[in-house]
Design brief:
The protein has 8 helices and 17 strands. It is of the alpha/beta class and about 375 residues long.
Length: about 375
């Protein structure tokens, strides 16, 4: 009887243990199932985020942006290549190649391409000045090594189409081209420069624009480029010096070039700023003025850095354009030869208002 009692107790504990084990197993299985579901939900969520990011990245990759910077006349020389104490050539000989543009070159480094007008000859030869049939006349050259200033300052393209690159004849011009090549700087002559980024090609035509026949030649060049490029820029040298308004001839030439298909038209040569015009589908900056001028003091100390941002749709090749005017002084406070950005809000406003046609002068 006693044995039966103990057997009954043992069987009862065994049954209770089995019941507890079953409960615990069901509990942990249920917990495991919930945790696994959470993991699946998290994995699904993460996959969704990855897909969204992937689609977004793909959308971003369907567009390309190109940033371009333009500055005006850059004279890295002195009159007839003469060096004397305190003049610009003396400054170049006593500083490194980054010095002349040091106040602005950080902006140039941030873009895709910076374009300048090179207003002097680079040569190491003793060449004679060519005769000029106007007065006053000037001749400018410096050593070929100073072409490295452009490269050191992140200026990728230099136009050689102006009234000074033949100051020392054909040999002087050839020496200038050779100096720019050695410095790994692209030179812009009438043969177009193609600026490329990903699938986008920008045609840059550097030219003189003093006569009607030159405008006609530019029109022909644009027609050749229209089917080969996605955007066309004409960077010209022309107009009348020290005038704040473009001449009627220059306006007519620019309109003709725009009608031919140029998207952006930018001028140099007057040594002073001239306003911007929005004409049909083109933007025309009639003059950027001087930018770095290593000879005498210029008529005006105001200039600009002009920047455009192009955003292209790679599928349709359609584009959006935004531009920016950065007012500068040609001669800075630290050194008379070094351009610098204008910080004074009132002076900046004068320049921007002038460029937008709201003032007679930027002064």
């Amino acid at each position: 009887m006693k044995k039966n009692k103990y057997l009954y107790i043992a069987i009862s504990y065994l049954i209770l243990g089995l019941l507890i084990a079953c409960y615990v197993n069901l509990y942990f299985n249920a917990s495991l199932t919930i945790q696994t579901k959470k993991n699946i939900e998290n994995n699904t969520y993460n996959s969704l985020i990855a897909n969204i990011n992937g689609d977004y990245s793909k959308q971003q990759n369907d567009k390309v942006t190109i940033d371009l910077t333009f500055i005006g006349d850059s004279l890295l020389a002195s009159s007839k290549g003469i060096r004397r104490s305190g003049n610009f050539l003396d400054l170049l000989e006593t500083h490194d190649y980054t010095y002349p543009y040091k106040n602005v070159s950080d902006l140039f480094k941030e873009d895709d391409f910076t374009i300048a007008n090179g207003e002097n000859v680079f040569t190491d030869k003793e060449l004679s000045e060519i005769a000029k049939d106007y007065n006053p006349a000037y001749w400018y050259y410096s050593s070929s090594k100073f072409a490295n200033i452009y490269k050191a300052s992140s200026i990728e393209v230099v136009s050689t189409m102006n009234n000074h690159t033949y100051d020392y004849g054909n040999q002087g011009y050839l020496d200038t081209i050779e100096a720019l090549k050695k410095a790994d700087v692209t030179y812009g002559a009438f043969d177009e420069v193609i600026l490329e980024k990903e699938e986008i090609k920008i045609g840059l035509i550097c030219c003189n624009l003093f006569h009607k026949f030159q405008a006609n030649e530019v029109v022909k060049k644009i027609k050749q480029l229209k089917n080969e490029t996605n955007y066309i820029i004409v960077y010209f040298h022309g107009g009348v010096e020290y005038q704040y308004k473009p001449t009627s001839d220059i306006i007519n030439y620019a309109h003709k070039i725009s009608d031919a298909g140029a998207n952006l038209i930018i001028g140099c040569h007057p040594h002073v700023l001239q306003p911007i015009e929005n004409y049909k589908n083109s933007k025309i900056v009639y003059s950027l003025g001087s930018f770095l001028f290593g000879d005498r003091l210029t008529f005006s100390n105001k200039t600009i850095i002009y920047q455009i941002n192009l955003e292209f749709d790679l599928k349709t090749k359609a584009f959006m354009v935004t531009d920016k005017i950065i007012p500068c002084y040609i001669y800075g406070k630290e050194d008379r030869w070094l351009p610098e950005i204008i910080e004074n809000d009132n002076e900046k406003k004068k320049v921007i208002d002038f460029m937008n046609g709201l003032r007679e002068t930027p002064e």
